[in-house]
Amino acid sequence: xxxxxxxxxxxxxxxxxxxxxxxxxxxxxxxxxxxxxxxxxxxxxxxxxxxxxxxxxxxxxxxxxxxxxxxxxxxxxxxxxxxxxxxxxxxxxxxxxxxx
Length: 100
What we know:
With 100 residues, this protein is α+β, with helices and mostly antiparallel strands. The protein has one domain: ADP-ribosylation fold. The protein is 14% helix and 26% strand. The longest helix is centred in the N-terminal third of the chain and has 7 residues.
């Protein structure tokens, strides 16, 4: 089951080089619904199951029980991130142009 992260399109190049970095050095916010956040942002899908399998010590928590936000306490490397269908990457990104 993927979780999703929304970001301005100008952040894609950096994300596909370095991954999703924790805000303020703490955590990355993800959500279950790819449309629950800013609709004009790029939608990124994170393979959270593979990430947790490969990183068993990583802490993953919910933000608030009644919200669909999930906090990942650490960096999510680019190999677990893909651009969702319908979103276009700039030619400057290093990700797979056929991902989606």
